[in-house]
Amino acid sequence: MKKVKKNPVIAIAGATGLVGSEMLNVLEQRKVPCSELKLLASKDSVGEVYKFNEQEVEVEALSAESFDGVDIALFATSAELSSIHVPAAVSAGAVCIDNSSYFRMKPEVPLVVPEVNFDAIKDGDMIIANPNCSTIQLVPVLDVIHKIAGLRHVVVSTYQSVSGAGKAALDELWGQTLAVFNQQEVPQEAFQHQIAFNCIPQIDVFLDNGFTKEEFKIINESRKILGIADLRITATAVRVPVFFSHAESVFVETEKPFDLSDIIKRLSKAPGIAVRAAHDEYPMQLEAASTDEIHVGRLRRDESVENGLSMWVVADNVRKGAALNAVQIAERLIAG
Amino acid sequence: MKKVKKNPVIAIAGATGLVGSEMLNVLEQRKVPCSELKLLASKDSVGEVYKFNEQEVEVEALSAESFDGVDIALFATSAELSSIHVPAAVSAGAVCIDNSSYFRMKPEVPLVVPEVNFDAIKDGDMIIANPNCSTIQLVPVLDVIHKIAGLRHVVVSTYQSVSGAGKAALDELWGQTLAVFNQQEVPQEAFQHQIAFNCIPQIDVFLDNGFTKEEFKIINESRKILGIADLRITATAVRVPVFFSHAESVFVETEKPFDLSDIIKRLSKAPGIAVRAAHDEYPMQLEAASTDEIHVGRLRRDESVENGLSMWVVADNVRKGAALNAVQIAERLIAG
Questions:
Q1: Tell me: the pLDDT tens digits for B37-71?
Q2: Are residues A181 and A224 in the same domain?
Q3: Please, which residues 280-309 of chain A have a Cβ atom closer than 8 Å to chain B?
Q4: What is the mean pLDDT of each run of 10 residues along chain A (336 residues)?
Q5: Is A2 part of a structural domain of the chain?
Q6: Spatial separation of the C-alpha atoms in residues A82 and A308, rounded to whole Å
């Protein structure tokens, strides 16, 4: 990768959204070295002021000229905006860490969860893709199990919070719930159907094969990050009426026999993973919100196959699932 | 089974609970032949009056003497109460259809979903067990697929509404949601943790193997109803903040190749099953509430195994998952 300065100029593009503003929080909380921070967003937000390290930073308009002098650009923008502005930032000399889906599956772009495949970043790489939130929390867990016993088959069903769909979606769950209470008409914009007191088995649009794009992100991105091109993995992605954090019910069949206590031990020692080994002390979305870890619980031997394992995986989708993962990549680039 | 009169005396034990009162509704809506209806409940409810077929019926205390002259007794009571009162009803000559878990796995008691295994009821059977709600909506779907291509492996993750835990649980979701809105302390009794804006990966208590009883009900009851003692099936049961209906993400691997359109056609023709074949017209809990059907959507070929199928199954857990299924058994006993 490009050598990054020890005290870089960092820009956040899309700084006023849920993920962008969390990137700002995470940069400050983790005391990431930063000589100057630039906050970039659409014209509507220009002039808004955010606090960073005791200083006030004014939001500037995201444009082709935004990246002059920037060393690291964190993108929390849509695929469309990233497709335009990431190349501009690269031309200006910035290493870009992009949270959109636009570059993720391009063979020349590393797709990185630092705990798993930071070494996928090679000298000269100027674009690094941040995976989908549901993928980020899954892959470090699968990686540990794969190294112990080999992954033979993975079946994932997700319980994804509305924050994955941005600020408007948080407002919609809140507003719809209130409307149900007041027996008023339920307003609906952010989702295809009412999400208050309901689960929606659709995230993103449908592909011809009947899967959603979200489900194929989990499938394809997991394969790329783990470096197992033919990994047998399937997913059903479901939106649930929860504000923050995604949960996943994960079934794994391994190639080789394993010792459950060994898997628990190795997961517990893995960076970024917190294991709840006692059956009744499972993690939940409500508690995982605002934490950095990937929380794994309900770990149990699954007798439905010869070498089976079932579990429940929870993480803050805005934090580890997006902002934190991007900042962790930046930190390691800076550390060299 | 015992011959049942064409115009029987029917009793509902536990008539004032969620399932019991739904049994009353279903008996009336389906015009089930009934010369007299007896409503039985705990002392607290004695004297309450319910309407049935334009007549007023007063709740009586459930006791050893309640079943004199009763031909069919529908039990919507706890396992503990059923263990005491079902034998008393049998002694009084009533055929008992019991919704509790108490008799379900006893080898001599048929466990019945009428669409699948009504013929499990033999001459002389006086106790018929009604399966667990999450099992009832799953098994008719699995049965169709098994007959077409053979079940090799089934992985289920549930999204279960709070109504499965009774009236107090409905109040708790409602009250907790209101408390969150008003930034008050969140009251908590019915569930282990806050359910408002949260998912709880625990239903019923834990077994030593790390599964919950609910999960093993799905596993064991499905095997018994389908008559496949060694069916390879696993489940993760999760409570979600939804009032009515359970949803299930179901992955199936079959023994033989299948034609997806054939499965869709056969499921569509199966009694009690409603298929949404268009990918984006999936069923949801909000709409399935108060309907009789098992709704199947998101049916798609799953390439993670050679013969794979994924889908989303939704039904009203109080209705098809409990009250309706019991009444359907009674109807067929009466029809002889």
A1: 999 999 999 999 999 999 999 999 999 999 999 99
A2: yes
A3: 280, 282, 284-286, 297-305, 308
A4: 85 97 98 98 97 96 96 98 98 98 98 98 96 98 98 98 96 96 92 97 98 98 98 98 98 98 98 97 97 98 98 98 98 94
A5: no
A6: 40
User: ∠ at Cα A311 (A306, A315), nearest 5°?
Assistant: 150
Do B134 and B218 form a contact (C-beta atoms < 8 A)? yes
Indicate if B112 and B161 belong to the same structural domain: no
Check whether residue A47 and residue A150 sit in a common domain.
Answer: no
Residue A182 and residue A299 share a domain:
yes
Whether residue B295 lies inside any domain: the answer is yes
How close is the nearest chain B Cα to the Cα of A30, in Å? 28
Contacts with A, B 52-91, CB within 8 Å: none
> Is residue B24 predicted with pLDDT exceeding 90?
yes
ipTM of the complex, rounded to two decimals: 0.97
Residues of A in contact with B305 (CB under 8 A): 153, 232
Host domain of residue B242: 138-316
- How many beta-carbon pairs below 8 A join chains A and B? 149
Rounded to whole angstroms, what are the CA distances from B29 to A47, B25, B59, B292?
Answer: 63, 6, 20, 11
Interface test with B, best of A194, A240, A317 (most B CBs within 10 A): A240
Q: Does A178 touch chain B (CB under 8 A)?
A: yes
Task: Say how many domains are in chain A.
Answer: 2
Q: What is the mean pLDDT of chain B?
A: 97
The residues near B53 (Cβ < 8 Å, ≥ 6 apart) are: B28, B34, B37
Residues B327 and B290 placed together within one structural domain of the fold = no
The minimum CA-CA distance between B215 and chain A, rounded to whole Å, is 12
* Residue A14 maps to a domain: yes
CA–CA dist A240, A195 (Å, integer):
7
Question: From the candidates B213, B298, B299, B306, which should be mutated to test the interface with A, based on the most A CB atoms within 10 A?
Answer: B298
Q: What is the DSSP letter of B22?
A: H
Asked whether residue B2 is domain-assigned, the answer is: no
Residues A214 and A253 in one domain: yes
Please give the Cα distance from B112 to B103 (Å, whole number): 12
| Residue A304 to residue B232, Cβ atoms within 8 A | yes
Q: What are phi and psi of A154, to 5 degrees?
A: -130, 130
Are the Cβ atoms of A201 and B297 closer than 8 angstroms?
yes
Rounded to an integer, the average pLDDT of B216-231 is 98
Same domain, A253 and A146: yes
